[in-house]
Specification:
Order of helices and strands: EEEHEEHEHHHEHEHEEHH
Largest sheet: 6 strands, mixed
Radius of gyration: 17 Å
CATH superfamily of the largest domain: P-loop containing nucleotide triphosphate hydrolases
Number of strands: 10
Number of helices: 9
Length: 239
């Protein structure tokens, strides 16, 4: 069943089309990869879907409802949430407080503090941060700060999670652990779209991949199809 439908999505900055006529759909329960060179429009596309930016043309449907043009917090409460390329944590607040904010303000319905606390505790445990529960989030390593952001997103109880370069800056061991976390999130019934430059991750955990270049979709297919596409190899993957 289709959970997201993107049609003709376009965004101009001045005379530059950062995203140009992009179409794609996402099925419930899949992990969709989004790749392309730096400046290809990947994060701009995330910003358009999540409501940070308003498109100049096109539309986004989430579970059949048009969400393009809505505020980010409204979209979040409908069940679509994203993380950021650069961690957007509150560094002076504890790990628990960071994740609690997601439960209190991002959930689809108002919930009591005790219930929100339980949701936050579960999300923290799920991403493996229980040992850091009371520490300031800013004192954590990069990999754990990224996990704080994922936990906060999960605390909003999403149906669709968009991950923006979750594995950037991680060592090979950390990448492997992050890949397992992504698969466990999917196994909870959460659909995932992930922007990633770590090809090992994209090729191993995504069922389908979309390639952007200069704001346009230039390819879409299985990991095998993308890895053998002459166009993608020339523009992005290299020999």
């Amino acid at each position: 069943m289709q959970i997201l439908h993107v049609e003709g999505l376009t965004k101009y900055f001045g005379g530059l089309a950062a995203v140009s006529g992009v179409d794609f759909t996402v099925e419930e329960g899949e992990i969709l990869g989004l790749i392309g060179p730096n400046g290809a429009g990947k994060t701009t596309l995330f910003n358009l879907i999540s409501g940070t930016l308003v498109p100049n043309a096109g539309k986004v449907l989430f579970k059949g409802e048009k969400i393009s043009g809505l505020k980010p917090y409204v979209i979040c409460r409908k069940g679509l949430v994203r993380t950021f390329q650069s961690c957007k944590i509150f560094p002076e607040m504890s790990v628990f407080q960071n994740v609690l904010l997601g439960a209190l303000f991002g959930a689809p319905e108002n919930i009591a503090w005790k219930q929100a606390a339980d949701v936050a505790e579960e999300a923290i445990a799920f991403v493996g941060l229980s040992a850091f529960h009371d520490l300031p989030a800013g004192s954590l390593t990069l990999v754990n700060q990224k996990r704080v952001e994922v936990a906060r997103a999960l605390a909003t109880e999403p149906e669709l999670l968009m991950l923006d370069e979750m594995m950037a800056g991680l060592n090979p061991t950390e990448v492997g652990e992050a890949m397992e976390l992504v698969k466990r999130i999917r196994d909870r019934g959460i659909t995932i779209i992930m922007i990633e430059h770590v090809m090992k991750a994209i090729m191993n955990i995504c069922g389908r991949i979309i390639v952007l270049d200069h704001g346009k979709k230039i390819a879409e297919g299985t990991p095998e199809e993308i890895s053998t596409s002459k166009t993608v190899i020339e523009i992005y993957l290299g020999e």
